[in-house]
Amino acid sequence: MGATIKAIEYVYPNNKITNADLSSQFPDYDFSKFEDKVGIKNRYWVGDNETALDLAIKASEKLFLKINK
């Protein structure tokens, strides 16, 4: 008798920050080199009143919709 993971879901915060966004805030830093070396193009930042629990609830709701089909 063991547990089986049948599905998994995730969500990102709504606030998407691109390298272009950061380049405009920090013009002295070359984010294209960072993107080439590390591969990060976007970051997702939570809002002021958003927590990890909020994201977990959204992901759980998305998962329940997926597995109840």
Explain the layout of strands and helices.
Blueprint: E1 15-18, H1 19-25, H2 31-38, E2 42-45, H3 52-67
Antiparallel strand pairs: 1-2
What does this protein look like?
The protein has helices at residues 19-25, 31-38, 52-67, and strands at residues 15-18, 42-45. The protein has 69 residues and is an alpha+beta fold. It has one domain. It has a two-stranded antiparallel ribbon. The two termini are 25 Å apart. The model has no long low-confidence stretch (mean pLDDT 92).
Notable characteristics:
69 residues, 3 helices, elongated
What structural category arises from helix and sheet content?
alpha+beta
Major β-sheet strand ordering: 1-2
Number of helices: 3
Count of domains: 1
Give the fraction of residues assigned to helices: 40-55%
Low-confidence stretches: none
Largest sheet: 2 strands, antiparallel
Number of strand segments: 2
Describe the structure concisely:
The protein is of the alpha+beta class.
